Amino acid sequence: MANVTLRNVRKAYPNGFEAIKGVDVDVADGQFCVLVGPSGCGKSTLLRMVAGLETISSGEIDIGGRVVNQVEPADRDIAMVFQNYALYPHMSVYNNMAYGLRNRGMPKPEIETRVQEAARILELGTMLDRKPGQLSGGQRQRVAMGRAIVRQPKVFLFDEPLSNLDAKLRIAMRVEIRKLQRRLNTTSIYVTHDQLEAMTLADILVVMNGGKVEQVGNPLAIYEKPATTFVASFIGAPPMNLMSTRADEIKSQLGSADAGILGIRPEDFVITDQTPAGGVALALTVEAIERVGAETFVYGTRAQDEQRIAANPGELPPGEVIVRIPGSEAPPIGQKIRVAAVRQKLHLFSDDGRTRIEA
Prior knowledge:
Layout: E1 4-12, E2 18-27, E3 32-36, H1 43-51, E4 58-63, E5 66-67, E6 78-81, H2 93-103, H3 108-121, H4 137-149, E7 155-159, H5 167-184, E8 187-192, H6 195-201, E9 204-209, E10 212-217, H7 219-224, H8 229-234, E11 241-244, H9 248-254, E12 261-264, E13 270-271, E14 280-291, E15 295-302, H10 303-311, E16 321-326, E17 336-341, E18 347-349, E19 356-357
Parallel strand pairs: 3-8, 3-9, 6-7, 7-8
Antiparallel strand pairs: 1-2, 1-4, 4-5, 9-10, 11-12, 12-18, 13-17, 14-15, 14-17, 15-16, 18-19
């Protein structure tokens, strides 16, 4: 096992495009680190640089106390699980898992022991003679993980391994991956664009945007105190409501001269006629309802936005305010409601959204 440390890592291509813009991350021994962000943010590029599949332009990548910038992928003592499984279709499950060990010249008894142990952990014992084409997507992904496990590497690298699975299987495999990582206690770096997947898997969460790290930390801490409006809107479903503090309705209640953007998570609103001391209340017109079982999402438009749009017909409509309420009961569409959030649940940011301001 080993820690993984990235020091001012950069990646620039010959055409001048800078994909990674100085990333610093420290993953402790045995931690599960998740890189999350939208498509094109650089997370997969960063993972491939750790694996040695992509060269770095500057900075250092340290695995287990050894700088591996110039070390070949096969010599970095890592194992990678890919999005597309990358299994040999003509080989059995057993041979897919044993292939890399044979190439390294490992004795047959040791190969047998490792493959059988991985098969037991992943519940693949009855499938060792099957070919990948005879397996479901979830089973193939378990074989891909088994191939990584038998290597007994210092670091596991996962490149969006669940993106090809259906929603139900994704949830099941997500749980299995986390249980497996805790059992093996192997340092792991996992790439995904799914923020829910990131939140549930990570010991340490790295939120990326445009080749940079927006925030690093414990997933719950990031959710409760996002450092920027990008993090606030990306982490959480539905996303955090963001609105200008310069709007008369908010300015009169908040009275904050420092912050330019107010954030309130949908679940922190309550439908009420009362305005909490130090908090914020908004008048909304219900535009849409989403019932998702144990809870309901209410989408509303602020009254002052309706007036502004009426006065300026060519103006783009503002973002809706989303309110999450328990149960399936909700106000009817078209009804005017008042929602409020207490001071402790408010998030304040600078005008450019790059700095968090404590409320």
